[in-house]
Specification:
The complex is a heterodimer of chains A (about 110) and B (about 120).
Chain A: E1 9-12, E2 18-23, E3 35-40, E4 47-50, E5 64-69, E6 72-77, E7 86-93, E8 99-101, E9 105-109
Parallel strand pairs in A: 1-9
Antiparallel strand pairs in A: 2-6, 3-4, 3-7, 5-6, 7-8, 7-9
Chain B: E1 3-7, E2 11-12, E3 18-25, E4 34-40, E5 47-52, E6 58-60, E7 68-73, E8 78-83, E9 92-99, E10 104-107, E11 111-115
Parallel strand pairs in B: 2-11
Antiparallel strand pairs in B: 1-3, 3-8, 4-5, 4-9, 5-6, 7-8, 9-10, 9-11
The chains are: A mainly beta (about 110), B mainly beta (about 120).
């Protein structure tokens, strides 16, 4: 299985909004509403920010939102804050019963 | 609150077998969920290795399937990973996690395993 495609890096200034894309195929992202997004700070385990495309777990800021169109899912962070600087990964269920991650996106808050 | 903790050798020789265990506390594996292993080479992205259920049913990443075995010991509330014929390319931080069922709601802290002679 091939990794989902994410931009290597994105950046934004405090207060701005950014969007990270995650592109797969009809066998993963496009075929199921089982896309999740994780934030990973250096040296730490990832933490889920969005699951099942649009669902935000309890305790996650409502500045984080998810969407999907066709084979591409997106994570949007609004009102960017310095603490949002981290690596972000998408993940999707696949038609083979496996999971696949994206290559990761480094978010820099300018 | 479920907690997961990886354990095992931090150094493995090339061509040998990497063996890790994930101990789960605060939740019984017998109660359900899928349990999975993920790895992350230094400075690189996450790679899903495979998952197992309480009955021992498994799914593996096709790229690793020939070398990977994941097993579960419900009496000890643990699940384990074996990766055979390792090379330097297998050097990574290995995480265990709980799937609910298609996203990770809990992760271990991770363990660095280095493949080197």
């Amino acid at each position: 299985q091939s990794a989902l495609t994410q931009p290597a890096s994105v950046s934004g200034s405090p207060g701005q909004s950014i969007t990270i894309s995650c592109t797969g195929t009809s066998s993963d992202v496009g075929g199921y509403n089982f896309v999740s997004w994780y934030r990973q700070n250096p040296g730490k385990a990832p933490k889920v920010m969005i699951h099942y495309v649009t669902n935000r777990p309890s305790g996650v800021s409502d500045r984080f939102s998810g969407s999907k169109s066709g084979n591409t899912a997106s994570l949007t962070i609004s009102g960017l804050q310095a603490e949002d600087e981290a690596d972000y990964y998408c993940s999707s269920y696949t038609s083979s019963g496996t999971l696949v991650f994206g290559g990761g996106t480094k978010l820099t808050v300018l | 609150q479920v907690q997961l903790q990886e354990s095992g050798p931090g150094l493995v020789k090339p061509s040998e077998t990497l063996s890790l265990t994930c101990t789960v506390s605060g939740y019984s594996i017998r109660s359900g969920h899928y349990w999975a292993w993920i790895r992350q080479p230094p400075g690189k992205g996450l790679e899903w290795i495979g998952r197992i259920d309480r009955s021992g049913g498994t799914y593996y990443n096709p790229s690793l399937k020939s070398r990977v075995t994941i097993s579960v010991d419900t009496s000890e509330n643990q699940f384990s990973l074996k990766l055979t014929s390792v090379t330097a390319a297998d050097t990574a931080v290995f995480f265990c996690g709980r799937l609910d069922p298609w996203y990770f709601d809990s992760w271990g802290q991770g363990i660095l395993v280095t493949v080197s002679s």
